[in-house]
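Our consortium's second objective concerns turning raw sequence data into structural hypotheses that experimental partners can test. To show how far this objective has progressed, the report includes one record in full. It was chosen at random from the queue rather than selected for favorable results. The single chain below, 199 residues long, was entered without modification.
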Amino acid sequence: MKDKNLKLAIIGQLMTAKVLPEFDIEAFFQEELHKDYDPNAEYNTKPIPEVFDALMAMELKEEDLLGITELKLNGANDGFFVVCPLWSGMDDYFAITSLDGIEALQNLEVLNIFGIFKHDAPIDLSCLTKLPKLRSLTISGGNINDLTVLNEIATLQELKVSFIKFEDRPDNHEVLRRFKVQEKERIDISDMGFKLDLN
């Protein structure tokens, strides 16, 4: 996957679902770093590089990826707290800038994305067209720009968006109308595009 934080989020969800074993950080410190782990140490407030690298080195089995039918990308993901046990959620350490590679989840039906996109990085949704079973998509927060690619997802039945920024174009608004997303009266237009708070 192009974005390592996306892989980390998927690993975290697989751990939560008990498909992958929980990461034993105490054992990792003893065996790999040759020192005791201190849960109250300052290093826990930032991503621990060695832990991150260890998770990135994991090879995800195709059968495990195919077992994911619902994916939640948000700040509560267990994978983030394995890497940064005392993460406050206020920093963008785990912001996702690309969804490329998500097509490995060929049985994904529901995708919920809440406040995990980096605000100054436009997100390309075209890779979602490679998910043959995607029927529900929720996006809260982020710079999407082009919504029209969602028209290419024949299986998509439900779209919910809020606090997103996208280009103020008729075809983008047509996507919202197609999925009966109600636009609120209060909107903001900036140089970066069109910003909406949508139900």
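The partners drew two points from this record. Confidence is low (pLDDT under 50) at residues 184-199. The helical segments are 4-16, 25-33, 49-56, 62-66, 78-83, 170-178. Both points have been shared with the crystallography group to help prioritize constructs.
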